[in-house]
């Protein structure tokens, strides 16, 4: 069976990571340790997660013609992701995320850079790529108009749409109606449901990630909990992106919702055992071995 075609429309960042014993208080300077750079961005992370499992991946996004941009493109290519639809802007800076790691937790500030240039006009240029996909995977680190345009193209073409509503912002009902699956975390789900007149309209689309507590999914209004895994946590950065990429892969393969959640949950658990958003994203062999032993 041919591998599924998954298109990710989203952000591409370089993550600048520094470790600290504790998060500094307001106005306070502290000494950090272990500064590193890792390829990241929610869109790119999710594309890598699906590609590691074997999906045929295409990335639609943007980078700058700077040292980070060149490294980010090279990383996507090394992970077998088609970058033909990644626009390189000559005089713009690539996106960056500044991440503080402390006691297995993190704080993140994102500088969008070229990600803010991913607009609806850029998306329209790649109409055929989206239309030919099995699944379209979206997040919210690019302008909302691009997300809505991509979802519209996908829906018109019968392509399944997965939206990870992060970082959270209020979403128009027109977009929610075009989405097949919504994958918020606990906090995002609470805000999303509080802003909708009739939450029952989207309830069966919800797949709520809950960290070490696992995943909640809904089947005909019935909540099903898939428990988490007990693993040694090194870095939680990118765990949600791993879940989303793996979830998109298994949905594109034709798995049931429950089975896709189960396997994606395991992939996310594996991802937190290594430092860096993409470093711990498992291959199919690693995931199979983990599931066989758990």
Textual characterization of the structure:
By secondary structure, this protein is of the alpha/beta class. The protein has one domain (9-21, 33-293): UDP-N-acetylmuramoyl-L-alanine:D-glutamate ligase (3-Layer(aba) Sandwich). It contains 10 helices and 14 strands. The strands form 3 sheets. Strands 1, 4, 5, 6, 9, 10 and 11 form a 7-stranded parallel β-sheet that branches. A 4-stranded mixed β-sheet has the order 3-2-7-8. A 3-stranded antiparallel β-sheet has the order 12-13-14. Strand 13 (215-219) and strand 14 (222-226) form a beta hairpin. Helix 1 crosses helix 8 (239-252) and helix 8 (239-252) packs antiparallel against helix 9 (257-271). It is globular and about 50 Å long. It comes from Aquibacillus salsiterrae. This is Ribokinase. Residues 5-283 form the Carbohydrate kinase PfkB domain. K(+) binds at residues 235, 237, 271, 274, 276. Homodimer.
